[in-house]
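Lab notebook, bench 4. We co-purified these components, and the gel suggests they stay together. Before we commit to crystallization screens, I want a quick structural picture of the whole thing.
Request: model the full complex, all chains together.
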Amino acid sequence: MKDKIRIASGQGFWGDLIDAPYHQVTKGEIDYLVMDYLAEVTMSILQKQKNKNPDFGYARDIPDLMKRILPAIKEKKIKVVTNGGGVNPVACAEAVINVAKELKINDLKIGVILGDDISKRIDEIIASGSELNNMDTGESIKNVKDKLLSANVYFGAFPIVEALKRDADIVITGRTTDTGLTLAPMIYEFGWKPDDYNLLSAGTVAGHILECGAQSSGGNFLGDWESIPNMAEIGFPIAEAYPNGEVVITKHKNTGGRVSFETVAEQLVYEIGDPVQYITPDCVADFTSIKLEDLGNDRVKVYDVKGKPETGFYKVSCSYADGYSASASLTYSWPQALTKAKAADKILRRRLELLNLKFDEIRTEFIGYNACHGPLSTKLDEDLINEIMLRVAVRSHDYNSVERFGKEIAPLILTGPPSVTGFAGGRPKPSEVVAYWPALIPKKLVKPEIRIL
Amino acid sequence: MNVLLKDIAHGRSGDKGDAANIGIIAYDDKGFEIIMKHLTAERVKKHFEGICLGKVERFELPNIRALNFLLHNTLGGGGTVSLKHDAQGKTLAAALLRMEIEDA
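Here is the predicted assembly.
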């Protein structure tokens, strides 16, 4: 057994710094590169792409990235774990294999995790007694069944562990928890068991710290952010994991950013609910047990993590089409910028009313004044405001109303308050609103499938 | 003595469906005492009047000197349903740091 492994975060979301994984494999020693590509909205986007072309439906940045890093990861024996397979992990793996062949690498083993997509099994699952009721509202899924765009189960670390045991160099999954990507290498390397709940929780906490990329190494840091060095070349976080569950969060030397008690603590509280019950398919981690020790030199020890058994359920994330929305903006300058923007909003709303359009919601925000903090915003002295951006957004189940809204923005320039600019890029088009349906499913109804390509 | 929350704590916020989560971390033990005592769920609910339309839950993480708040019914439906410019509540941690605590 290794006495420690270094697991590096390469992406915090699909669209994160493209060069981050390359720097993680080239700027220092690591054993694993883990990359999270899937936000909730991503699955429905990928499903739409796959519907148009059966070869699509995965994070298409991956083949290009692999072209850059494959030689280095083969040479240094770095393993890669990613959920960028989206709704088509096999196509993603095949694309990577093609890239490897171009590079004359012919002995690459790719593990693929399937079985998370239950979109075609909804009726069968309901028939077997699992209601898939909305976790938040209790509503029955029958109300949205015909509008579903995607339905995926969140698998945890163990299917990835299985692929690693079968000698995969790269593991590509569909919907897997962000934390499972980081936990899996620890289970595999240190021989942790499915009922080592404290250890599994320790790895889960490390996964939570890594899952948003540089958000734990100085990015988006609300403390003394101006003191963070060299954010232009920010280093992404690395979890140095030990068999006893202790983890040191760090980053490569000669990179920007900072790993400190404060930067790690901010990520620990990010998007959590009840900290005593951080629920994953692998365990229920107790975030109140976590201890942090700042060791200096961009090293923070995370230890004493406690946890409890998993719940027996997988979380399911379904998405469904729920109408249309559009937003538009115009910029008004001094003098009276805010007064003008407010007047324009009133004129626009009156016109929408006279046209008898149907909206579920119309929302107006004044960027430069209250778009972020609403009623908490400091009152402004109009003489001191240089400009205000009026932003209006609408949502409706009636496509035509949203489309017509888009045609009512530009006319405000010649038929409303003066000194207005900033309308570019044409009429805003209606975009489909994707709503979420979180549910639970007993684990016995879903079985992960592991394939080695 | 009045204290601006921003001077004794930092934090981060994000979305959990239509709820926003705001984690607030005190810079030191004295600061944590102050937020434990004054930063109640009721106080946070009142601070976000007109923004948070549901209940506020408070959770404590004393090991890292932090409090976590869940603000239900806050993000205009959440996800891509929300029409808000800040649909994910990314700036709400900063909004909470505006709070002034009297007689801290």
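The first helix of chain B runs from residue 5 to 8. Worth comparing against the SEC data before the next meeting. The helical segments of chain B are 5-8, 29-38, 41-47, 92-96.
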